[in-house]
TrEMBL record:
Superkingdom of source: Bacteria
Protein name as it appears in the record: AAA family ATPase
Pfam families (alphabetical): UvrD-helicase
PANTHER family (alphabetical): ATP-DEPENDENT DNA HELICASE SRS2, UVRD / RECB / PCRA DNA HELICASE FAMILY MEMBER
InterPro entries: DExx_box_DNA_helicase_dom_sf, DNA_helicase_UvrD/REP, P-loop_NTPase, UvrD-like_ATP-bd
Organism: Rubneribacter badeniensis
Annotated keywords: ATP-binding, DNA-binding, Helicase, Hydrolase, Nucleotide-binding
UvrD-like helicase ATP-binding domain location: 1-260
Amino acid sequence: MTYEPTALEAVRIVGGVGTGKTERLVERAADLALADGPRSVAAFCATPLAARAFAARLRERLGDAADDVLVTTPRAFALEVLDDNEARASTGRDPRLLTAVEEKFLLEDLKVSGIRPKRLREMLKFFYRSWTELADDDPDWLLPGEEAELHALLKESLGFMRAVIEPEAANLAVNHLRESEAARSAHRFAHVVVDDAHCLSRASQLLAELAASTSIAMAGDADACVRAFDSYPYAAGLDEFAERHPKARLVQLDACLRSKVTARAAENVLADPAFEGHALAASDGAEEGALAVLASDDPADEFERAAAHLADAARAGVPASHMAVAVPNDVWARNMVAALEARGLRAEALPARQPLGGDARILERCLPARVLTALNLVADPNDATAWRCWCGFGDHLLNSAAFASLRKQGLSLAEALAAVDSGAAPHAVGMQRVADARREGLELAARADGLSGRSLLDEITRLVSDGAETSAPSVVARLCLADGEADDAASMARRARERLTMPTLSDGDAVAVVPYDLAVGLSPDTLVIAGFVNGFIPCRDYFDTTVTTLDKQEKMHAADARRIYALVGKAERVLALSHFASTDLETAGALKLKIDRIRLRDGVRTCSIAPSDFLTAIVGEA
């Protein structure tokens, strides 16, 4: 019999963007902390950045006592739940989230199934979504044959690496808490509040409920459902919450508390048929605010003009910490940070994707990933995931055949590699390469033992590159090092993994430069939406009927409408929409922009780029 949290005092807070949902939750958390003690309260937020913003608001009310309120994400909490001996034994995993590089090795191991790559990826998406929606509650959720066999291989491969993949984390934690009374007692708070529930997966929503023993308050807006941090956000969870808690108190917030300009912009987007007639109105006392459309000739001009707009705001008294720039990709993020800093404004970018790139099949092209993997081995010689990756680098198939053979023995990865060392492993393609890599990894760990900080990273780099490089790659140094914090191998490896899988901003006094969908939790006085052109939003494929069917186009439009609605509603007072009109053909192709026309300009093939189709919808009559 599994435990379900249905006997809680429940509150459901719903309302459009800017209606004060987060503020209500902050007030509730503060009141409960004062009444029952700060350690009795936990707040779950949609992203690490949103958690940081929530904690800052809570500190304004509670002072230092706010430090004792747990403010986190369901993902981080799930890993805490899985970090005890009972959970490790029942799941066969360590609370170690795979990074994007490590996921490539998992994918290669799954290809031994013989399923074609496109079909394999489609099936994995189905598994991942199903995990986040707890479809595996039904023992018959998988079809016999290919589907069930691939799912078994996936679970077996993750178990062999003793790791967890992101869509699985909350699922495993929910099932562990359901089954274990001891785990529930160890990870329980009297009161739980959940912000931006519409951006959380179903498993994350239920995980938050399982953490509550007395009360649960959940806030959200289904119209603003975007994929921010959890892979598969579940807007229907707000209604399911009401079904599970029929006595839940409903708090309906109807008036947007931001400027009238922001409220009108959000209301204009809501007029799109995708929202089925939903409405939003400004509160009676709201100030007018301002809406600017920053039109530039090319990307370079756009970066300069957007930075100048924020520099003007700074001169008018707006602190950098109250400004934000939403960008379509990392290219725009880097250029915006440079342009802002050239204007004397501190800026920090939140990455849209993990910064470790390269090709794991070619040793010379994946040095940062190899250095970080070696650091993991120095930190923990029993790190199964690190060994799987280390022994796969440099091979076209990442030595997947050899590891498939090792996995079939029924041993742990450490035991299987020990068998390779002793010569007892079965013969398979690539087994000798695995043996050689294993020996080199052990030697490297021994030679780097006792070092720390930059010296450790540099020595690992020298060993990994056979002396070709003597200084750690800058991306690895940024991930691993932190002023004033521990710099032993274990601390640096843990810090790097957290920065890769749970990124946030560290400078609270800088302009926040964030991807479109990761502005969740922010409420900047002045918001610039940069790169607001066709090709970025909507994406280029949306306009290509040879690639996108009409049904898919309609779904893409609805998803983009939700993204825009959620984004424009973040501006407290000033909203600026920035776009450019042209760029060279090579750049347009690389950025996958929608090209309206190509013409020669000073001997350069130049493309005309139109503002986003959503621009007119946002501006409306403003």
